[in-house]
Amino acid sequence: MTRRLLLGCSAVGNALVEHARDERGGRDDLVAITDDTGWVSTLRDRNVATVEADPTDPGTYPDSAAVVLVASDDAERNVAAARAARERYPAALIVAHLGTAPTDEQRAAVEAVADRVVDPVEAVAGRVFEAVGLDGGRGADADAEFAHAADDEKPARLLSALRGLSGPLLVVAHDNPDPDAIASALGLARIAASIGVDADACYGGEIAHQENRALVNLLDIGLRPFDEVDLDAYGGVALVDHSRAGINDSLPEGHPVDVVVDHHPPRGPVAGSFVDIRPAVGATSTLISEYLSRYGIAPERDLATALLYGIRIDTKDFTRATAIDDFEAAAALLAHADESTLERVESPSVSPETLRVLAAAIENRDVRGPVAASCVGEITDRDALAQAAERLLDLEDVTVTFVYGYMDGVIYGSARARGADLDAGELLRDALDPVGSAGGHASMAGAQVPLGILSEVSESESLPDVVEAFVAGRFFEALADAPAQPTGLPPEFPTD
């Protein structure tokens, strides 16, 4: 299978081949097509499979190509080759060198079909590597990354999915979005805009957490409330930081989805023309940052700041569920981000509701071995539960926390685990997914359960007591049955 296709040749194309030829170990996955006899001879001498033919004629192209590089010196032929390649390989990543002295019309024609355009003034091999998300000056490391980029078709498939939409894109964050969801929604909208696809980012619920509000206000982030959105006005829907329509977002359940980018483990099959879910990565913002880099898009200061903050929050400043990708993305974003704004976001005023929930969580805590669970009763801010769960981890010898409360006819819960031989996401799924929805990662998870008949309490009962008995019973029962128990959990763990 052809993975890389070089159409036409010049100093740019030749330098690209020279840089990459050794690391492929002679594998026949690079094909060059040029009608320049001199370049044909040179490329063949370097053991590059070369076809002497017109690079603008799709009849000479191989059956498949993941990455196409258009690299002639002739601007008009590059226009024709780029157009032919786009028609022949709709999903390919096309990087086009404009050639010598291109006109404005030729430049516009290439930009209309290519994913990345290399300016002739800077047309050197390092610039081509940068255009596909690489740094051409890093020797063996760059060779290894070039192999990775050529084999990874996700960037090309994402652009193909976006181009295939019949109208604007609606990027949907999960309800009551956290910084990772907010930044990811904005980043995906920016990617769509880079190829001429109009996109709006939206969210359901409210942005209640004080730090999240500070982020949105200080960066003047344009995220639309879902209630203001007309779904019929959009040609496609993308989900970020979650993967199922109607589950923790304001879309109708089962609504068609075109694009999904997420880092949470899916609970069942995920539908979409393009799906990228990587649970090993600490934040969805990391994935969006990777795509921006692959496409050669330098994020604006506000977007870079939001993405960096999203990574820091979801990885708890790189101390929780962190992958190498998260460090690399954060390092790349740091050059574009506004650190003074981050300092202001991280030091907002704390709302009275957050303090009340934290106090209730401490007062009502039920500690069993290394596990602390707490019912805080009726709430007005869901985000306060997560903050309380984080703070309860500061209790001595506690490695797992679960804080829950109810509002608007729904019970919400947030769990955290640190240094425990236990998957918090699986624990909540086992306990509450059968009666609601739950999920997350090993170290952080959430759940929501309809109150239903629990709200119909008798005069002798209180709703907080009924909720606590129901949720705590299921939680501790699932904990006792968990295959991997928290460190220090007694073998005979009490369930009542």
From TrEMBL:
Residues 170-311 form the DDH domain. InterPro entries: DDH_dom, DHH_sf, DHHA1_dom, NAD(P)-bd_dom_sf, Oligoribo/pAp-PDE_c-di-AMP_PDE, RCK_N. Gene3D superfamilies: inorganic pyrophosphatase (n-terminal core), NAD(P)-binding Rossmann-like Domain. GO terms for molecular function: nucleic acid binding. Residues 370-460 form the DHHA1 domain. One of its GO terms (biological process) is potassium ion transport. Residues 6-118 form the RCK N-terminal domain. PANTHER family: BIFUNCTIONAL OLIGORIBONUCLEASE AND PAP PHOSPHATASE NRNA. This is Bifunctional oligoribonuclease/PAP phosphatase NrnA. It comes from Halorubrum distributum.
